[in-house]
Fold this protein.
Amino acid sequence: MNKPLIYFLCTGNSCRSQIADGFLRSLGAEKYEVKSAGLEAHGLNPRAVQVMQEAGVDISGHSSDVIDPEVLNRAHYVITLCGHADEHCPVISNKNVIKWHWGFDDPAKATGTDEEILNQFRSVRDSIRKRVEQFVKEGK
């Protein structure tokens, strides 16, 4: 059986899309094929890796990738996680693809002490986890 492909998109594929990818692989790998990408590849953010490790999910082996048009057009769901990616997502020629936007603040833009910045990453991580859990439970 082919599992539905979920393609998480963000601007740089370094934080939010990686976190969503990690949680969906952790919570729904038996139901979904999961990929993530960005309009650009900014590299994996070390703080995203750290806060996911705290949540028991290892994303350290993930790579930061640029959107692949072939994957984009075979996805069942394309889910953007930032407004920039939502506005600049490449045209999806496959009309059967369901495109959703789940907007989350960019924790990489957080300022303050290391602890304050990490707390912003944790807050975004927890919000994404709730949204992914809802998706796995309800399929939407």
Q: What stands out?
A: The first strand starts at residue 5 and ends at 10. The chain is about 40% helix and 15% strand. The radius of gyration is 14 Å.
